[in-house]
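Example record for the data management plan.
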Amino acid sequence: MTKRNSGHYKALEYLAEHPELIGVNPHEVLTASIEQVLFHQGKFYCKIDLVYELRNKKALIIEYKANGHRRLIEKGENQLQRAVDFYEKVKSTITEGRLITGIVIPY
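Corresponding structural encoding:
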């Protein structure tokens, strides 16, 4: 199974197309980027599941964990914090992070 055929990737695609599922007005979304890899000074910094860049010049970062296992949630929280720090410090963008767990996406 290729990465783009995985259930996780399909869920991210669905969330990118339907931000209203997590309380984001679709008309406020300029772009939605799936599995964005961030680099700082030429070095890998972190990988984000989903980033919405909004019309109000803010960003919303989503880390999606379908399995609500405690270890995965802790990992997701760490990934989310690194990504929010990156957007705020490196890109100077006001950023909100959300960890989404255990949602069954109806794709």
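Summary line stored alongside the record: The mean pLDDT is 89.
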